[in-house]
Amino acid sequence: MAKLHFYYSTMNAGKSTSLLQSNHNYKVRNLKTYIFTPKVDAQFHEGKIHSRLGVEEKAHVFDENFDFYEYFQIKNKENISCILVDEAQFLTELQVKELCKVCDEFNIPVMCYGIRTDFRGELFTGSMSLLAYADTMVELKTICEYENCSRKATMVARFVDGKLVTEGDKVVIGGDNYKVYCRKHYRKITGLI
Ligand SMILES: [Zn+2]
What we know:
This protein is α/β, with parallel strands linked by helices. It is 31% helix and 26% strand. It has one domain (4-139): 3-Layer(aba) Sandwich (Rossmann fold), CATH 3.40.50. It contains six helices and eleven strands. It is elongated, with a radius of gyration of 17 Å. Zinc ion binds at residues 144, 146, 149, 151, 181-182, 184-185.
C-alpha cells in the first residue's frame, strides 16, 4: 500500500534539498516521478525547485484549481513510482484529499514538503489538511536563530527592512525575509503567543 508522507518544518530547514534527494534516489533507479510546485512559488523560481546546494529540477506547476486526481487518472498508466510536492502548505484542502485518493486508489506514494505555520504562528491550509490525513509525518529540523540558542526552531518570524512584522499577507515569497526560532524566543520576539 502506498503512503502519503508529510515532511514539515519551518523555513530554511532544507525541505527542497530533501525533496531533490528523494527524487534523485528514484531517478538513479530509472523510476518515474512527478514533481510539483505551486504557482505562487513558481513565479519566483520559474517552475524549478532549487536547493541551497546548487541542485535544481524542473517541476510541474499547480494553481488552486488544479485537480490532482483527474490529472493522475490519465497519467496513472505511466507506472509512476512517486509524486513529490514542494511548498505543500499552499495546497487547498480539496487538493490534499485528491492526493489521498491518488495514493490510495492508484497506489502511488505521495511525498509532500511544506511549512507548518506562517509568521503569525497559524497553520497553513495545506499543512492543516496534511497533518490531518497523512500516513506519516516527519519533522525536518533546524536550529533557532536567536543569539546563542541551540534549541530546535519550530516557528517562523517575518522581517521587512530588518524590522519584525506581525501583520500582513499570509504569503510573501522569498526566504530572505524570514528567521526561524524556538517557541520560547518566538514568543519573546513577537509577543504573539
Ligand atoms: Zn531559541
